[in-house]
Amino acid sequence: MSLRLTNTLTGRIENFTPLSPNEVTIYCCGVTVYDLCHLGHARSYISWDVLHRYLIWQGNKVTFIQNFTDIDDKILNRAYKENCAMSEVSERNIAEFHSDMNALGILPPTRMPRATKCLHEIVSMISELEKKGAAYSIEGDVYFSVMKHRNYGKLSGRKLSEQQHNVEGRVTKKEEARKQNPFDFALWKGAKDGEPSFNSPWGHGRPGWHIECSAMVLKELGETIDIHLGGSDLIFPHHENEIAQSEVATGKKLAQFWLHNGMVNVEGQKMSKSLGNFTTIRALLEKGVSAMALRLFVLQAHYRKPLDFTEESLGAASSGWKRLNTALNLGFVYSKTLDWPNLNSSTQNVLNQKESTTGDSFSEIRQRFIDVLNDDLNTSAALAILFEIARPLKSLTNKLEQGEFKPIQGIENTNMHKRWETLVELASVLGLKAEKDAKELIRSTNDIDQTLISEAIEKRRQAKMTKDFTKADQIRQELKKQGIELIDKPGGVTDWIKS
Ligand SMILES: [Zn+2]
Predict the structure, then answer these.
(1) First to last CA, the chain
(2) Whole-angstrom Cα distance, residue 408 to residue 126?
(3) Sheet harboring 205-207: ordered strands across?
(4) What are the extents of the domains in the chain?
(5) What's the gap in Å between 213 CA and the centre of ligand 1?
(6) Residue spans of alpha helices (H) in 375-492
(7) Cβ-proximal residues to 245 (8 Å cutoff; 6+ apart), any chain
(8) What pLDDT does residue 90 have?
(9) Neighbour count for residue 152 (Cβ, 10 Å)
(10) Residue 270: what are its φ and ψ, rounded to 5°?
(11) N or C: which end of the chain has fewer CB within 10 A?
């Protein structure tokens, strides 16, 4: 089975074949750089990062272009509030963007063009549209005439005649009077006093929002690309307008596939600044949420579906990640430090146990992993496969957590080692990698003060005897914060494990 993706353009799941064999061209709509990235961005870029990684892993050469919108009303408003230049706001937020994406382990795009650096291409595309009679200028503003695109509305499924009614009221009277059709949109905006502006055949001004993506696609990737990516909130009007501009200007189809990710809800509500449930990536990471746990959380849902963010679901993803992370760290411990859990004979047996299939024992599971990702990037099924691979490593990770290490010869020839290698490879396709370095893991295990834990367990036992369950629970919670999980056993004995 080859890769199948849901194409918003047709509303169907279709076989994906790049225009040039094994070479994939992708354009992804980037951020407007006026503020820090939020959870919606994390969701979007983590999802597309898996597509990017998967295509590379499957042997394709991927050219991935993602833009920065660095001229926009939002950036200008922010600069005005902060009493600084627009470029200061955008430079700062571009640096913050890179830092957040780096923390989330997103593969850097091939190139990241900026609107202010593509003015030549933007102006020449507008001129081309004007030449073709699809653009008209009024007092320094230039508009695209939607009636000039035969299929306007083909992506969003909206019809111009049906939309007439809705659009009124959103447009200022002055703008409305100028436009030939209420859906016509600005390609170029005449300069306003005190705003940065650039020279053009229509006088000083700046580009409208939609045109930059069309101009960048053409400049960076050519007339027709394989995949265009973005959030589902961009389908209309942004992507619809991109299609109209590009296809009228070049006479060619803009993109073979349009992929859109679903939105993020917080505790069942749409995430928005006005609702006060707005979470930035930075705030989450500073709170101590692991970037990899966030990744795992995002990938548990299908990219097209809405993602419901709750403290509880993030907590569950964090526990899942902890288990996977320990397994991913395993091989680094023995290969890097040449220290190995103090193996008894039963562990030796585990190491040499027969896998379910013979020969390349992991080819079957690897194929299943490929199959689920080929099925419109079913990342949640792919995650389940990672946990399935990690499960038999548990007996070794237990040893690791006990902190007893001894060198072992010939470890790389064991099935367990091959299992670990498979786990690391497939996890990296989802962008998941061991988060702690092995030495740190060993140190943190050795750092546990066993006497303090025993004392706490004793205090809790006494509290329970006097029926002070609040106190008993407090002690349990305190230990939990330090990563110690208590296990009550029959006969009043309490054991503990490092969670
Ligand atoms: Zn765009």
Answers:
(1) 40
(2) 68
(3) 135-138, 141-144, 185-190, 205-207
(4) 4-261, 322-446, 450-498
(5) 5
(6) 379-390, 394-402, 415-429, 438-446, 450-465, 469-481
(7) 125, 129, 144, 187, 210, 211, 214
(8) 97
(9) 24
(10) -60, 135
(11) N
Structure token pair of residue 80: 């005005």
Whether the CB-CB separation of 163 and 177 falls below 8 Å is answered with no
pTM (two decimals): 0.83
DSSP 355: P
Report the pLDDT value the prediction gives residue 339, as an integer from 0 to 100.
41
pLDDT on residue 171 = 54
* Rounded (10°) CA dihedral 477, 481, 485, 489: -20
Give yes or no for a contact between 164 and 146, defined as CB atoms under 8 angstroms apart.
Answer: no
Kind of pairing between the strands at 185-190 and 141-144: antiparallel
- The DSSP element (H or E) to which 103 belongs, if any, is helix 86-103
**Per-chain residues with Cβ under 5 A from ion ligand 1:** 29, 213
Name the stretches of the chain with pLDDT < 50.
165-170, 336-348, 350, 353-359, 405, 407, 438-439, 441-443
Please give the distance, rounded to the nearest whole angstrom, from the Cα atom of residue 242 to the centre of ligand 1: 7
Q: What does the pLDDT read at residue 295?
A: 97
Residue at token pair 């007996």:
395
Total count of residues recorded for the chain: 499
Residue 122 in tokens: 């933007």
**Cα(126)–Cα(143) distance, rounded to whole angstroms?**
9
Taking the centre of ligand 1 as the mean of its atom positions, its distance from the CA of residue 405, in whole angstroms, is 53
Over residues 417-433, the pLDDT tens digits come to: 889 889 999 999 999 98
Does domain 4-261 correspond to CATH entry 3.90.1150.10?
no
Contact 3, 374 (CB under 8 A): yes
State the distance from the centre of ligand 1 to the C-alpha of 279, rounded, in angstroms.
Answer: 23
Q: What is the torsional sign of CA 456, 461, 463, 469?
A: positive
- Residue 59 CA to ligand 1 centre (angstroms): 27
| Distance (Å, whole) CA 226 – CA 256 | 5
